[in-house]
Design a protein that fits this description.
single chain; 252 residues; mainly alpha; 12 helices; 80% helix; globular
């Protein structure tokens, strides 16, 4: 009953909007490697506020990342998965714990700032054609762990790190998904121990996660046909706008 009461103040149209964006974000994520963490805050914040966003997306991402990894399983680079997890898990715990101590305004500023910074970061790394080996990946994973533990939409950092090691196309998407599943388990555990996983958080996360399940398989069908740069350009614009709105609300 607590699960259903979590939607008491949310209209049917709002739930349909969340479901529609979740499906679209999962398809975009299946093609470009990220999307859910960037798009979902735009529709969730007006309904639930900024504080529950990261826990909601952490749980729902378990569904989308699992389906994404299943769709692209043969492309996973398990060596890179191991490197990132060894270095990122401890700092992810730290980042997730820090997020539980933020106020609603602080959460809005952190999430919004991360969304805005993710766009120039990705473009800068791509412009300079930054490439490095296992040591560079390990060092970058330490910082990634802190950021991903306490923010939503930070998956672009991991994608940039993986691409900088030479991974391309489906291998990036698959390896990112495998890493993100373990990182998600770590974050959810920390949030659970700190009392952040409320019925409202779980309800929205399940709605988003279940709706998004088919997204990766739909994306796989279009991965070689759909112009990824078009999706990326649109998503960048939405990310910048959404981040600005969140920061504005944080200062209000």
């Amino acid at each position: 009953m607590e699960i259903f009461s979590a939607f008491a103040d949310v209209s049917v149209w709002q739930l349909l909007l969340v479901a529609g964006v979740a499906l679209f974000a999962s398809i975009v994520g299946g093609v470009s490697g990220y999307g859910t963490g960037a798009l979902m805050p735009l529709v969730l914040v007006p309904m639930v506020g900024p504080a529950p966003i990261v826990p909601i997306i952490a749980i729902s991402a378990m569904f989308s990342n699992s389906s994404r990894m299943a769709a692209f399983l043969k492309y996973v680079s398990w060596r890179r998965v191991a490197i990132v997890l060894v270095m990122a898990v401890p700092t992810c715990v730290l980042g997730a714990w820090g997020y539980t101590k933020l106020t609603s305004a602080g959460a809005a500023l952190v999430v919004g700032g991360m969304l805005i910074l993710s766009v120039p970061l990705r473009r800068l790394l791509k412009h300079h054609n930054v490439q490095f080996g296992d040591v560079g990946l390990a060092i970058g994973a330490v910082g990634y762990g802190v950021v991903v533990g306490g923010t939503a939409g930070s998956g672009v950092i991991l994608l940039s790190l993986l691409m900088a090691t030479g991974l391309e196309g489906a291998a990036v998407i698959a390896t990112d998904a495998a890493i993100s599943i373990i990182i998600g388990i770590v974050k959810i555990s920390v949030f659970g121990m700190n009392g952040v996983l409320t019925p409202q958080v779980i309800s929205f996360a399940l709605l988003i996660g279940i709706v998004a399940l088919p997204g990766a398989f739909l994306a796989k069908a279009f991965v070689e046909r759909m112009p990824v740069h078009v999706h990326t350009a649109i998503l960048d614009a939405v990310v910048l706008l959404g981040g600005a709105v969140l920061i504005y609300n944080g200062f209000k």
